[in-house]
Amino acid sequence: MKRSISVVAVLGTLAGTAGAQTTISVYGSVDLAVRHQTNVVAPPDLGTPVGSATAMVTGYDYINHLGFRGVEDLGGGWNARFNLVAGFVPDTGSLDNAAGRLFNRNATVGLGGPWGMVDIGHQYSAGYRTMAPYEALSAKLPAVNPTVFLAPGGTTPGCRPITAGACARFDNDIQYTGVFGGLTLRAEYAFGEAPGSDTTGSAVGIGVNYTKGPFLIGATYTKQKAGAAIPPNPPAFPNYPGIARDADKTDYSFGGAYNRGPWRLAVGYAVHKADTIGGDTTIKGRWTGVTYNFSPAFSLAGAYYQVKLSTVALPVFRPDGKEKVDAGFLVARYALSKRTSLYAEIDRNNWSNGANFARKANAAEGLGVTQDGISIGITHLF
Asked: What is the pLDDT of residue 320?
């Protein structure tokens, strides 16, 4: 539920005597769960599993955030807008990012009109926004969903060292969104802001969705140039010393969804490639998801993901440099009201070929083991 304040903004003498109405909304979510997981290893990312672990996890089904959104009607179908979103950790009350950014989830200002919208600032990449409608779980379960490691983005400190996609956002981003009937087009350019070069650290991306009746299809492409704007490998991941963050990266994906009555079906495929020390690193992912709504309040969703990593820069565990994880999820959700819902989730992650490349909530992965997890939580939207 959004709290809105409407005011009449009287323009100054330079703008004449016209008035404009501004609507400001405060919104957000609080999500907490208790999760039990097997085969947990002690950080940093290496070693033999020491046993099971049970802990409270935050933002498990829905990212915890506090947002402020404003829209000013400029007349003639045009509007000015802003959106500021802060992520937080409700079990401690702290910000949810090590860099200490206040509005780490979104900080944009822009203009909208008959031909679309342009937003500038720190925001989700065009690729991520395009992928979400055909993601297996509609981009839910962000704490454990493997797809977040394949979404383009990542000029934010603290992102994954192998793939920039875990953050799924760009700094210094100009993004256009246009809706033309069933066609939604997104295009972006993110500045690298490197002295002496306009391209170093920059990114360009495009995403297209097309909807007709119950069917949706989509595709994305993003190219990110190496540069100082990309944070270096953090020391918390010593098992990947040969994989540099500072590398040219290419991401693309395609997929589709079918929504009819109580059913939702989704399939997709995504690839992330990085030019790394000694050769390319490639991460490929595919997914399938099914959701059935038994009633407006109760739904059941199942999903399967397979993510493969291949690199000549990783002889640490496998001479062939190939790793894989197969992940399955079953999620039940029950809405107590329009704002509050309960959820229960079980999952299995099978790490093969020494796979150890994607963090999960409340666990660093074992080397080539199977992990089972169960989570029970509550989400409140406001």
From this structure: 52
